[in-house]
């Protein structure tokens, strides 16, 4: 019987017009490029599939491993739900400049238009420069008519909600909610496996050739959910050595672990478990395997691993499963 172990993956680094150098300086990602906006940590997105970086399966793609060991990696429940498609996309994002104002379609609309999952996501702020902000939702009750009026008059920013943020702040971004990451923010993002984004405003920016980026206002309007409540700011406990729930939704559950010493873990979820180290470092051990997880690194625990330990002093982890 094959022994499964904690899996690390090669980061997929993406240059962006708004990207910076924090993924290299803060999170030690290896790149000679200057505008790295995203590090895709675990991805099953077609054309951007992660490759295993450690152990016996090193060099194999996530897709190949899922095709060979679907239940062992995903868990029987998740395998039945998603087949051999990996259902989550884990990223670190460095916004040196403001991202575009955008939103994402839900599952039904994404399936109909793009044969894709929708995109519900969450953010955990790892570092933020002074006065940096996130844009999430509107600053007043909103409807389609009022929104379109502001869009037409180029006054969209007047109705958007700007929140100043600092390390540890957490936001839940449901599909259909307008949002953007402001310049100066470094964060971890957990989302459904989807690369579908509807851009509605891009600060009138142009590229080196004087061209503006494409906007998607004609199709974005149908993706808005103007009935969403202002419940996107997440308050969570930071009790030591416990899995403190941050977000629980149909697409993923994320917990915060404030690690001091050693924790014994049992996987009772019937799912893979992902650990994202957002501060400090720790060691994840199972059946003779010991994997160091440092700030800015991500680990996938196959569902076949029932018991393991996590040990470290002062590490902060995001624990993710379905």
Task: Reconstruct the topology from this structure.
Blueprint: E1 12-20, H1 22-25, E2 36-42, E3 44-45, E4 48-49, H2 62-68, H3 70-74, H4 76-82, E5 88-95, E6 101-103, H5 107-114, E7 121-128, E8 133-138, H6 144-152, E9 160-164, E10 170-173, E11 179-181, E12 185-192, E13 198-201, H7 217-220, E14 244-248, E15 253-266, E16 273-279, E17 281-286, E18 289-294, E19 298-301, E20 307-321
Antiparallel strand pairs: 1-2, 2-5, 3-4, 5-12, 6-13, 7-10, 7-12, 8-9, 8-11, 14-15, 15-20, 16-19, 16-20, 17-18, 17-20
Fold and architecture overview:
The chain starts with 11 loop residues before the first strand and ends with a strand. The chain is built from seven helices and 20 strands. The protein folds into two domains: 212 residues, Sandwich (Jelly Rolls), CATH 2.60.120; 78 residues, Sandwich (Jelly Rolls), CATH 2.60.120. The strands form five sheets. Strands 14, 15, 16, 17, 18, 19 and 20 form a seven-stranded antiparallel beta sheet that branches. A six-stranded antiparallel beta sheet has the order 1-2-5-12-7-10. A three-stranded antiparallel beta sheet has the order 9-8-11, with no helix packed on it. By secondary structure, the protein is mainly beta. It is globular and about 65 Å long. This is Phosphohexomutase. Keywords: Isomerase, Metal-binding, Zinc. InterPro entries: Carb_Metab_Reg_Kinase/Isom, Man6P_isomerase_Firm_short, MPI_cupin_dom, PMI_typeI_cat, RmlC-like_jellyroll, RmlC_Cupin_sf. GO terms for molecular function: isomerase activity.
């Amino acid at each position: 019987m094959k022994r499964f172990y904690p899996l690390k993956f090669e980061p997929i680094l993406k240059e962006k017009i708004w990207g910076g150098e924090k993924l290299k300086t803060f999170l030690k990602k290896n790149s000679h490029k200057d505008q790295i906006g995203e590090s895709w940590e675990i991805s099953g997105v077609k054309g951007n599939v992660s490759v295993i970086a450690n152990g016996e399966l090193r060099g194999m793609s996530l897709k190949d491993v899922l095709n060979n060991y679907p239940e062992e990696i995903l868990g029987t429940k998740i395998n039945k739900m998603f087949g051999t498609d990996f259902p989550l996309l884990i990223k670190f994002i460095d916004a040196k400049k403001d991202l575009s104002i955008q939103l994402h379609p839900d599952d039904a609309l994404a399936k109909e238009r793009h044969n894709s999952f929708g995109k519900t996501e969450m953010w955990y702020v790892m570092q933020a420069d002074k006065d940096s902000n996130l844009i999430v939702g509107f600053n007043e009750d909103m409807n389609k008519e009022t929104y379109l009026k502001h869009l037409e008059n180029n006054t969209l920013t007047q109705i958007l909600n700007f929140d100043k943020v600092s390390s540890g702040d957490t936001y839940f971004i449901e599909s259909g909610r307008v949002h953007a990451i402001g310049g100066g923010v470094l964060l971890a993002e957990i989302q459904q496996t989807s690369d579908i984004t509807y851009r509605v405003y891009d600060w009138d920016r142009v590229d080196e050739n004087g061209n503006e980026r494409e906007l998607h206002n004609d199709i974005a309007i149908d993706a808005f959910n103007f009935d969403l409540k202002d419940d996107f700011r997440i308050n969570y406990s930071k009790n030591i050595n416990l899995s403190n729930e941050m977000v629980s939704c149909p697409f993923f559950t994320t917990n915060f672990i404030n690690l001091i010493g050693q924790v014994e873990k049992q996987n009772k979820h019937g799912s893979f478990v992902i650990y994202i180290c957002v501060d400090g470092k720790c060691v994840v051990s199972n059946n003779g395997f010991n994997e160091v997880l440092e700030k800015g690194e991500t680990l996938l625990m196959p569902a076949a691993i029932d018991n393991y330990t996590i040990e470290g002093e002062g590490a902060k982890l995001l624990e993710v499963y379905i």
